[in-house]
Structure formats: structure tokens, C-alpha cells
Records
---
Amino acid sequence: MTTPAFIPGLRLCRDLYELGVRPLLDGVAHAAARIGAGSEVLGLDTPRSTDHDWGPRLQLFVDLATVDAGALSRTLSDHLPKDIHGWPTNYAPPGERVQAMTPTTGPVHHRVDITDVTTWSRDHLGFDATTGVSTADWLATPTQLLAEATAGAVYHDDTGDLTRLRTNLTWYPDPVWKRILAAQWARISQEEAFPGRAAELGDDLGSRIVTARLARDVMRLCLLLARRYPPYSKWLGTAFAALPDAAPIGTALTRALQADDADERQAALADAYELAGAWQNRLGLTEPVDATRRPYFDRPFPVIDATRFADALAPGATRTGAIDQFLDSTDVLGDPALTRGLFEAVEPAPGRNPAA
């Protein structure tokens, strides 16, 4: 088929709802949205995105106790338009995890996912966020999943349940936010002297790898300071670069990554730490912390001594933080049941023995 003109996915999904789905609902109370996984949800889709799992698709939320989801899905299959602005509404292979838009002359194997808000929340996040979010819920939920739940677009919401879920997930409560920021500074503290130390032993590759790890941690720190849920690695740099206050820090991190001299790497990282520390001080979350570099004990490696920021934010708290601050597996972080189980193994609920 001739490739249609690219349309941002959220607009295409809106038009699927307005032109194709809403006229078939016959007064059924519902919410309609494009949230969850997908580059378009974060507003980062491009023509490259159109090859799979992109196109005119929706989540349609109804009362499953009163609406026959199977019958409604069949109605959509039989009566949805075959395309929206030239982009097929039919997906193939049907039922597979990865699907692509495919023209059809028969019934449409659509991607209108019919569910209710509570079920979607439990499936996507591991808990029902319409009734509130506990500290354990916040800490056991990867930031990528929180971003997917709060970004995207809601096209209609009769009952307000979906709006309430997204409002509840807008951002961490201050005590949780401080604890997560403290854990992020703690990650930096654990390796901030290592680029220079590795290079001192002639391990240039190791020095570069630690520098890249620290740059990633600073980028995630800045997103957290800006009250943005850090996305997973594919989109991390793009999200970081979009922050209004990130440009000088990005320049410092780029210098660190490009430097052929280990002393330059260590100095450029220290520039980034100082800027991030000053940013935190401007937020007024704690008493100001001196955001200037200093030697690492008696060794010639400039550091920020990031532990000081962690201690100011959450004195006495454990430094494991949220699930994606101590786990880094896509397969695990994409499975809410696994993340919640592993989080509780690290930090069990009061009075509960996770080994029991």
C-alpha cells in the first residue's frame, strides 16, 4: 500500500475514537484513552514507529459488569472503518504480542482494548491506583510504567475513574520523592571516584564505562528533580534534553563522555554534580547542601560527596530506593507481579517475613 502521511499517534488515536468508536457505543458510559506502552504515549513517535504496535488504537474503559465486552468487540470488528486517514485499523497477526497495521477487506482485528479502569491499573501497575497509592505502591512501580499511565491522552471520561487514577499518579508525595532522590544521590556516591581510579590502573575502557554509568544516574536525577518520571533507556536522553534546566548539565556530561583524559572526565562529571546539587538546593526540599567539589579523601579525584545530599533528603532511610534504582532488567521491570514481589523481598511489609 502507499504509505499515508505521518500523523502523530495521539492524534490518530483521537480520530479513531471520534470517527470510528464513539458512534458505535450507543450511549454506553465509557472512558477512552491512549495510555500505556508505545512511543506515541510519550509523544516521541516518528515515521519509524509505524512498523509495529503503532497506529489507530485505544483503551476503551467500560463497566464490565453491565457491558458484554466480547459483543462490543465484535461490533467494532464488523463496523469500524478499515482505515483512519489511510492508516489501517486492522492488525496482524491477530493475538500476537507484536502486531502491525495490515489492510483488510473483512472484519477488523482491531486494537481497541476493552477493559475497566481497575483491571487496567492492576494489570499495568500491579495495584488499583483509583483508590490511592501507598508508599510501597510508589516504590515498587518502575518510573517507565508511571510515565505510561500519566502521559498519553484521555479523549473521554464519563465516570471520572480514569481521570482520578491519573491524578493520583501525578507525582510522588514529598516524603517518597525525597527518599527516591536520596537513593539516586547514593548511587552516584558509590562510584563517583571510580573513573579516575580505574584510569589510574591503566583501565581506560573501565573508566569510560563508569563515566557513562554516572552520566546516566545524573540524567535520571535531573528528571526526578524536575518532577518527571524517567523513561527507560531508549528515551532517557530525549526526555533529559527536553528539561528546561538541563542544557548546562548535558554539556558537562557530554564533555565527560567525550574526554580522552581521565582527569577531564572526572572534572566534567564534577561540573555536572555541582549543577545538579544547586538545582536541588533551589527546590528547598532540605536545608542547602554545599554543592562544590572536594577531594575523595586524600586521593586526587574531585567528587561532590553525594552522600551528603542523600543524608539531607532522607536521614536514616534505606538507600535501595524504588525498584528501578536497584534492578535493571527489562523483563523484570515490565512485569508488575515480579517487581512487587522483588521489592517486598528487599523491603518487606512491617511484621511480614518474606521468607515465610
---
Amino acid sequence: MSHVPVLEIGGTHVTASVVDTTAAGAAPLAVVRRPVRAHAPADDLLDAIAAVGAQVEVPAGAHWGVAIPGPFDYDTGIGRFRGIGKFESLHGVDVGAGLLVRLPGTPRRISFVNDADAFALGEYRAGAAAGRSRVLCITLGTGVGSSFLRDGRPVVDGPDVPPGGRAHRLTAHGLPLEEVVSRRAIRRFYADAAGLPGDGPLPDVHDIAASARAGEAPARQTVQHCFGALGQALAPWCERFRPDLMVVGGSMAGSWDLVGPAVREGFDAWGAGVAPPTVTALRPVDAPLIGAAHWALRDGTAALPAPT
């Protein structure tokens, strides 16, 4: 099985592709991306997801790889979405069974993988993390995604990683991390720093970044506060896990010229020499697709061999 059909399910979109896992760079052969209504009823959501999958050409009886955010039971394919503002209708639903009867070609199996892990595996197979033994991959978008990889396999338990291997479970300034570092938290902090009314329209993160580059004090204060907290939260775990590299993806990685120094200051506040070398993703768009394909290929049962 070298041509693997995959789905990447996000909070606002679904992407379908077929990935040639034997090609140099593990290139997706076709990519289709469509919006999805995260608050739709369960059957409507599953229909919409499968409809995107139906737009790529797949062989009968294929083994699909599906990247999907948590909370989700990746072994059983059952949604655990509750109180997170998206996919609530899939809570307790057997998503795997629902997709098996909806996807084209009567698939024989679906392997689910956390979307942050899929991103990390894609960067390991064909991106910035290739050839690295220990990697911390972070995605900065609506929230904070993370994956701690050891020899191409996500580490989700043990003393060297946060609970579940997930940085969003950490705290910063006495709050859950995503109450300090997330799209909503950054906008809220900026509004307070700039004295903006809480009930009015707020600038988005890219606008705040532009203002910070222009030297606006509230914007620069916001970047320093929020992303410095991220560095402080990650520092003790990097001291334990000792990653060879940290790879950063997600929409906010486009502002790494601002975000990076703030994160490093947060690391340095914990202790000198803790911050790992850091780069932005080489495959920011298709890394989750590549990672989901390789997860299906190996079915999550063995470490992926180092890329050649």
C-alpha cells in the first residue's frame, strides 16, 4: 500500500488527499479542501466529511489515514468532544464506523491520529524534522498543538512529557495555557493593554503582529506576555525531553520574527541552555496529510524508520 488516502479534519475545514508514500518528499497526489460546519448534527458532519473524501480517486478496500483534533479516542474512533466549542455532536459517536460506511470504495480500515502528531510525523518524514531523534513540534493557531517525537513515534506518557504529550494541558501564569496563548487569549490581552472596549470588534492576531512590527507598545506587550508564557511553560519539559529540534507550524508561525524572540525569553527565564534549536515547518500545509498517510501505513504499531 504505497498510495494512501487521507483526511485532515480541522475545526473549519476538511482536506482530502492521496499520498504517494514512496515518492521523494511523500508528495500528495491530489488535494481537495472544503469548509465544514463544526456545529452541524452528527450525521450531517459525517456526510460532509465523507463527501470531501469522495472527491479524490481511491482504490476499493483502501486503508485510510485520518488526522483529527482531540479530545478523541484514537484507538476506537469515538469522539470525545465536549465543552470545546466544535464537533459537539460527535461526542460519543463512533466516527470510524460512520466514515467506513460513507467513504468511497468500501474502505477496509481507518487509522486515526491526532492532528498535531500527524503534523509532526509529516515534518519527520519529509520536512524540517527529518533525521532527528527527538523533536518537539508545536502548532500555533486557534490554540496550541504539540507532539513530542522520539525516533518517529509520538511519546504520550512517561516523566519526560506533559500529560498525554500535550502542551495545551500545561499552565501559564496560573491559568490553562490556552487561556494565555491562543487566538482568543491574545486578542483579549491586547484589548486590555490597548484599552479597547470588550464589547467592540477586536483586531485579529495578524493585525496585532503588524502593529507590533510598527512599534506599537500594547501590541509588543501582548506578544511578549503571551509567547513568553509559552516558552516558560515548555521549558521544564524541554529540559526533561531534551529535543534535538523544535519545529513550529500553524498560522502564527508566519510571525515567528516576533514570536520567536518572545518564546526564547520565556525559555531563558526558566534557565540558560534549555531552549532547543528552533525552525519553522518546511511542509506547513501538507505535513498533516503526509503524517496521516504514514500513520495508516504503519497502523501505529511500530516506530517509523528514519527518513533516507
---
Amino acid sequence: MNTEPAMIPAAKPIIGQDERDAVDRVLASGMVAQGPEVKAFEQEFGAQLAGGRECVAVNSGTSGQHLGMLALGLGAGDEVIVPSFTFAATGNSVAACGATPVFVDVDPETFTLDPAAVEAAITERTVGIQPVHLYGHPAPMDRLVEIAERHGLWIFEDAAQAHGATWQGAQVGTFGRGGMFSLYPTKNMTSGEGGMVSTDSPEYARQIRLLRNQGMEAQYANEVVGFNNRMTDIHAAIGRVQLTKLGAWTARRQELAAFFDAHLTGVVTPVVRPEATHVYHQYTIRIEGATAAERDAFATALREEHKVGCGVYYPTPVHRLATFAVDLELPVTEMLAREVLSLPVHPSVSDADRDRIVATVNTVAAAGA
């Protein structure tokens, strides 16, 4: 008889009968491309997660970033300040417009943009700032907005991992000219695949709608050079169902995080600023002082010896990737890339799983991996 415990996955999309029924409803309707489900999803998402802002649905979070940058007029010769401690899409979205991402360091506790580093990186070519609300903790938006306004810059928020997070009571995705949310399967909610762009500008929203649909508002009346970045009604139907469940899922993530905060030892647990509501897309600890090899050994012990899934987000800073390879020293970013490790915090983690995660991490930490 096999008594080995089951693997606790690092992430686990939750797709139930409600989502299946919604897909069947769309398939039965015969309208599966961009139609009434997409429109309803945009309205519901904006009302619940974007402070009532207008939202535009697209086929991925990366598409939302790319079109969001294009709609801001970003182009060759422009610079946008971005963190290097993030997923590559943050920098890619700038580079794909022909502009230059300027990588700066982050806060060692919240992993989000350091306002002082942002201010120091502004040049005559800087046009915007793209903060990332990494792991579900919002960037310090009051300070970033003040810097942007003082220097005449726009802000476009990367809220891919931060559905429902707030800073000083305001939802992420409501501070800049635009904001992007990802709806990839492992995010806090999903549409199967997809993204959403929020904005306070009707003209900006219209520009993104043109760009996502081959540059057309009316059929064959192409106004700009655009793309096929539309969301389908199938994906929107899934997203609409998930939106109704997000509140309870977020509460469970926060409950798990509070338990981890109280019971984990030998590692650095996440910091939450008083101004912030953290939605814990990831619960990310630090193995303080570890080399990348030591952190990886810690992760291997969790996975292979104790069947606790975990992930490293992100082992290589974006400015170090071959696609950019910028000769730049960002000490906090480099430290975090060596030390971070994300534990399972998704709503499918049971109380028994939760207890096993704590016991395992504490055991491995005490043993020095």
C-alpha cells in the first residue's frame, strides 16, 4: 500500500460545472466570437475590480500590455521605466512598440517599484512608468503618481497578478491612464486565457478596441493598423462565472497567508504595507542570504522529499535575459532573484495541506536545506 502523501500543487486552476455550463450556453447560442458575453464581462469586471472604469477585453494579459502601450502612442526613441524583478512581458510590451524599457530596482520587502529609483532614472526621453503589482501586493501608487505628475509622465499599471488589490483604499488599475489584468489559468481568476485593460479615458478605450480588432470599429472600415487580439465569448463566459467566485477565493488566499505568517519559521515571510490590501497571487518567502543554488536545493527538498509544490518567480531578472542583456547593477533585484520561493496559496489548499506546508518548510529551513 502506497502511503506517500499526494503532491500539493504550486498552482491549481479551479474550473467547475458552472464554468462548463457557461461554455455550453455560448456554444448552443452559435455566437462564439466577440459578442454579448464579452461586452457583459467587460462591464462586470470594470464594476467589480476597476473602480467602475471602462474595461476592454483582449486575448491575453500580454496583448493588453502591448495594445495599452500602443494606444498611449509609445514608439521609437521613448523610454518607459519598469522593474526588472517581474515577468518578461513587462519589458517586452515596451520593446514591442519600438521603445526602450529602463529597468530599475525594487523595494526589498514588497518587491514593487522603488520610487527613488524611478525618479533617478527619468531622462528627457522618459514618457511613462509601468509599475507591477507583483504577487498581488500593490506598488506605492501615491508616490508614483506624484512623480509622474511632476514630470509629465503617464502611468500604465501591470496588475496581472493583483485582481482586487488596493492601495490606500483604491483598486489597482485605477491610478494610471490604463491598467492590465491577466486572466491566464493560474491567476486569481481566469477566463481560460485572456486579459483586461481598464482606463478612465473613453478615447483610449476606443483606441484599444480598434487595435484588438484589426483596426476596425465598423466592418472593413480600418482606421489604424491593428491586430487580432479579440476575446471570444467562450472565454468571456468562463470569466463571468469566475468573477462571481473571486471574492471568496481571495478571502481564502488571505486566510492561508495569515496562517503562514503566524507559523512559518526560519524564512522571511511577505511584508504587507499598512496602505495595501494584498490578494496573494503568490505567497513568496525569502531564504535570506541564500545563493540561487541553495534556494533551488530548498525548493527541491520541498518538492521531491515532501511533495509540496513551489515555484521561483523569477530566477533571472529581466534586464539579464538574452533579449535585453543590459549591463546594469540592481542589487535588490539580484538578491531577490536568488532568495525568493513561492508556496501554494491557492484556494484548493486544504487545512491539512496548509499544516503540511508549514511543517515541511519549517523542517527544511531548520535543516538548512
